[in-house]
Amino acid sequence: MHLTPSLLFLGFLLTLTLAGPVVRVHNTKTHPICLTVETSAGYGSFPTNTNCGGLAAIGIDAMQTAAFYPSDNWNGAISDFTNAGTPGTRFEINFSVPGQTWYNADMEFGITSGTLGPTDNRRMSNGKPSFVGEADPLAKANSVWASEKSKLQDPLSRKYVTPSQDGNSLVNVYMDKDAPENVVAFFQLAANFNAYIHHGSVRGDSWAVGSMTGRLKQVADTHSGKVDGTNDMTITIY
């Protein structure tokens, strides 16, 4: 079969567009950040130069951008850490499907300010931004705090949401794997964080129809992103 000139040109453009995956990390902070990398499949060059909470890690200086070049089939995660050395948002990227990039932000184990999406900042077919994560999770939690705070008065919940002295706003938000369901529901449903707060259906477990767990799983699953025709992704840390 002979390719027409137009098909040859299209193939050339696709080759340029999908020359190889790129993961860029842009640090907008006025101090260095610390990131750890997990690889589930494929391989990548993520040279470590510091540590986060005792783990070998990547340090990126203030107001700097670093670029990394994993393999075509790389599937893994890059986790931001807090200044205190505890886990923050985990950014998961999967390049293993040719021509597609799957990605999400996971806040099950920690919450920090950051987003992930295609470097070209494209819009989705429904017109919404293509990034996942939250640039300012504290502000988003505060936007619904007044209507939701009565559900988060117990001592255990206060480990995860810290009110101001007058109780009218939040001064800190926190997450870990032991968070109670009412806290998960606050972030996932009420504040509608654009991330997995609940693990969703990935573990394959079942739930009762109409239950809170079922609602959390279904909503969590809507926060997976997919883009076609690009494997150039940017994580922005705020």
In summary, what is this structure?
The protein has 238 residues and is α+β, with helices and mostly antiparallel strands.
Overview of the structural elements:
By secondary structure, the chain is α+β, with helices and mostly antiparallel strands. Helix content is 19%, strand content 32%. It is built from four helices and 14 strands. The protein has helices at 5-17, 137-148, 181-190, 212-221; strands spanning 22-27, 33-41, 50-52, 55-60, 65-68, 75-81, 87-94, 100-106, 114-118, 132-134, 161-163, 170-173, 225-228, 232-237. The protein has a seven-stranded antiparallel β-sheet, with no helix packed on it. The chain has a five-stranded mixed β-sheet with strand order 5-1-14-9-10, with no helix packed on it. The chain has a two-stranded antiparallel ribbon with strand order 11-12. The longest helix has 13 residues, at 5-17. The chain starts with a helix and ends with a strand. The model is unreliable at 1-17 (pLDDT under 50).
